[in-house]
Amino acid sequence: MEILLEGLTLTPLIPKETIDQIFETARIEEVVGDFVQLKKKGTNLWGNCPFHNEKTPSFSVSASKGIYKCFGCGKGGNSVNFIMDHEQHTYPEALRYLAKKYNIEIEEEQQTPEQIAEQTERESLYLALAFAQRTFTSNLLKTDEGQSIGLSYFKERGFTQETIEKFELGYCFDRYDSFGNKALEEQYNRKFLIDSGLCLDREGKLLDRFKGRVMFPIHNLSGRVIAFGGRTLRSDKKVAKYINSPETDVYHKSNIVYGIYQAKSEIIKKDNCFVVEGYTDVVSLHQAGIHNVVASSGTSLTVEQIRLVKRYSNNLTIMYDGDDAGIKASFRGIDLVLEEGMNVRTVLFPDGEDPDSFSKKMDENELTAFIEDNSKDFIQFKTQLLSEEAKDDPIKMAGLIKDIISSISLIPDPITRNLYVRQCSSIMSMDEEVLMMELNRNRRKNFQDKQRKDNGRTPSEVPVLEEPPVTRKSNQDLKKRDSEFQERDIIRILMLYSEKHIHFDVWDEEEEKVIDQEEVNVVDFVITELIEDEITFENELFKLVFDEFSKMLEEEKIPTEQHFINHHNPEISSLAVNFFAQPHVVSERWKEHNVITLMEEDKLKQSILSSLNVLKLRKLETMITQTRDLLKKAEEDKLMELMEKLNRQLSVRRILASEIGSTILK
């Protein structure tokens, strides 16, 4: 339990046994699948990366290894890392999130006073908002004022108790200081009550922003409350019908859609997302049985909101009111969705109806049938709305066609563009070649506009940048970089093949023949080889890993791949993920065609010996350079000793080079 004291929290420690249980229970494909639409391809699952904008999936999830890796931006890790990166959680917060998801009880140990640390402002905002949600919901369900005003309003809208609890709806008392005073009594920091947008500071007085309103909490992808929408129940036209939380460190209106937390799994399941305008539209459609629905919260769709939906499905259906405002909003949204490479359809409700009101007039099957029957792609939608008006006017008809072609020109995929041009040609009875010419003109204009926007000038004004002069690295720098590369390769082998064994012939020197084979663990062999030759690691991270392998070997333990993937040191964990994540896997179909493809594991002994020899050679070359430097400055009585040392080093270098197959130039 967390106790908030003027911005400080006493955060209990999570026992190691519980942490291990969380790591063992969490399924990476389920954790990532809550946020990203994944599709099976080969042995892994793939989807669009949630950490950067991309049109071709480069984000890979390996269920067998328990890791994710984006080969576009480089992000990677385990289930805990994903929640930390995606939800901006701390390590303990990510563990608690996963524990809650998998119903793992955390029996926490209270921290000592020395372990108490000040929470970040971001976390303090989350805590204040969570307290507000609990308070508003309690007001609604457990007080006379809440039940008679707020609850009766929701009941009039037809919302059931289950729906109210699902969306955590609430009510803020019709007094200016009710919530603020309660929060202060509970030791919540005044600063965070104001910064979260829950309260206003008026000449030193703390006033409730949402006084006398029914409350719609806005959740982020992991279900934490980040903001509120409040609806007044007054008929006074001077009072704004809805007010929303202001922008804060945890809430950016253009980046989130209302209802995404409740809808994301159904969006993935149905591979389609319905977008409506308001809070009550979402709640009513959920209650009517349509769960893959979100709201743009009263604003026009933004690029960020579209990209958020795209994580879960490439298909988006805009469902706005049938009035002029709804039609205009649909038109604005279509082009943005197309530009992001998504498929877009529209559904308009009868004039005077919105999704909230219309969903109450029919059952789930009738509503689903209406949506299916009235769902149109953007060409059908625009043609149906505008063709009647332009029917007998060639100029207006030309404008309609140009408008449709302008939308098609925004689609990134050339095949999809061509198919839509063909459809437009058929519907509008226009020559396809003429439409293609107009399309190409639009695309050239779009490109030039983008150039001007990016550079602040026309393409012809953009100067040609000269290549910067090449700075040559010194031999010493190159050798150091080369040595680090070899150190990295040894650590890679240790991590990837720690549980594997290699075989060596046992040679009878008297009879000069092989009499047996000895099986040696990879870690045992590599560590022993390097320690006996007194090889040390220069890179600090690689040295940490090597030392940990050495220590575990002394304890007669061999680490599994999960040991390093789930390592408490994030640098080591990240290194392990990079090693275990493979962008390409050899298809099993090659075997069907009797094509034998040798992998590193098939020639493991050879690979290990080669890597060890190359590392030894790089270290030896450094030693040779040092010996030569000493010779240049040596006293006469030291010359012979140093010459003998150099000759021994050169002799060993020739042997190593011969085994590797390298040519020594000097």
Rg to the nearest angstrom? 33 Å
The N- to C-terminal Cα distance equals 69 Å
> What proportion of the residues is helical, as a percent range?
40-55%
Number-wise, the strands total 20
What is the overall silhouette? globular
Strand content: 5-15%
Strand order, largest beta sheet: 3-4-5-6-7
Q: In terms of per-residue confidence, which ranges show pLDDT below 50 for 5 or more consecutive residues?
A: 1-11, 111-119, 458-474
Q: Count of DSSP helices?
A: 27
Largest sheet: 5 strands, antiparallel
Mean pLDDT: 82
Structure classification: alpha+beta
Identify the quaternary structure here: single chain
Question: What is the domain total for the residues?
Answer: 4
Please describe the structure with a list of short key phrases separated by commas or semicolons:
single chain; 666 residues; alpha+beta; DNA Primase, Chain A; DNA primase DNAg catalytic core, N-terminal domain; Dna Topoisomerase Vi A Subunit, Chain: A, domain 2; 4 domains; five-stranded antiparallel β-sheet; five-stranded mixed β-sheet; 27 helices; 20 strands; 51% helix; globular; disordered N terminus
Task: Set out the fold topology.
Blueprint lengths: L3 E2 L2 E2 L6 H10 L2 H6 L5 E3 L2 E4 L11 E4 L4 E4 L5 E2 L1 H9 L3 H11 L19 H22 L1 H13 L4 H6 L3 E2 L6 H8 L4 H6 L3 E4 L2 E4 L4 E7 L5 E8 L9 E3 L15 H11 L2 E4 L2 H9 L5 E3 L7 H8 L4 E6 L3 H16 L3 E6 L6 H5 L4 H11 L1 E2 H13 L3 H15 L5 H15 L3 H24 L19 H22 L4 E8 L4 E9 H11 L7 H15 L6 H5 L4 H11 L8 H4 L11 H30 L2 H25 L6
Parallel strand pairs: 14-15, 14-16, 16-17
Antiparallel strand pairs: 1-2, 3-4, 4-5, 5-6, 6-7, 8-11, 9-10, 11-12, 12-13, 17-18, 19-20
Helix pairs in contact: 3-4, 5-6, 16-17, 17-18, 17-19, 18-19, 20-22, 20-26, 26-27
